Amino acid sequence: MPHPLDNPAWHALQGPHRALGTVVSGAARYLPDVTPFAALPDDPQAADWQALRSLVGPTGVAVLFRDQVRTPTGWQELFRMPTVQMIGPAAEQGGSARAEPLGVADVDEMLALVGRTRPGPFGRRTIELGSYLGIRERGALVAMAGERMRVPGHTEISAVCTDDVQRGRGLASELMRVLVAAIVARGDVPFLHAVAENVGAIRLYETLGFSTRRLVEAVGLRPPP
Hints:
Blueprint: H1 8-14, E1 21-24, E2 27-30, E3 37-39, H2 46-56, E4 62-66, E5 76-87, E6 100-101, H3 107-117, E7 132-137, E8 140-151, E9 154-162, H4 171-185, E10 189-195, H5 199-207, E11 211-222
Parallel strand pairs: 3-4, 9-10
Antiparallel strand pairs: 1-2, 2-3, 4-11, 5-10, 5-11, 6-7, 7-8, 8-9
């Protein structure tokens, strides 16, 4: 049987994140201001692709994030991004005196930081997916990390970013250790994704105890007219 992490968006939208998306028979998608990911069952059939087409609309885009995507005839492939999926340590890693929880009032600052650092898709309601932490310098948000997709027994760490002028101080590592501790404490296993060509980020995650589980793909598709 396929593992839920082989198709995390589908299994998250069938369970913990169902209220943050639109789920129909054979297809699902997160609300657009939460995250752009759409999803199909583990073994999608022609009817499931048709359901996805109806869900995103003739001018929409479906971003699939899973083990392997075979683009059907008639669908336009806009991009394909090989991504490393990594599993985190099973032990708690400690706390931080500087990390502070981020909430709705911080979203504008979070969006600004994401705009400067580009860690991946992040919308105005992404913060509803899980807990987010940040570090401030002189009142300004300079680093953050948080939780994204959740499937039974696993929680994804995402939006790990630090302002360029603050890099090299271990801020991202500090936030990730706090998140790992919280995830492990509630009985989940942390996981994350890194673009396959981002060797520096992958090495950083390895120093924090993460190991590569498999390759997955982020693929943007436009439905047939």
